[in-house]
Amino acid sequence: MANELKDKLVSVLAALQTQGMTPEQAVEHILHSFGGRAGEISTISVITPGLIADVLLTVYRDAVSARQIAIILHRLGYDRQAVAGALRSFFPELSRPGDGEKGA
């Protein structure tokens, strides 16, 4: 189901991109279709911060930054830890020194 959802979101965002929308504008447009309640998106269990980041990076590739994605995810109601985890999986350079290392 996650792949189907990703494919649909990619399709919608790609169409919005061809209309000249930025990542922020495209997400805002999608929010309006959900009734404009950004904070409620984070409560839909299949729509994860990682999925949203993946969709944005698939469609906008180099035209979207980690900062833009973080702002979008925060606006959608995801907490800092969820946003950081999603960003680190796509931008490993954002990991803190020592992340994932066992103590010596």
TrEMBL record:
Domain of life: Bacteria
Protein name, per record: Uncharacterized protein
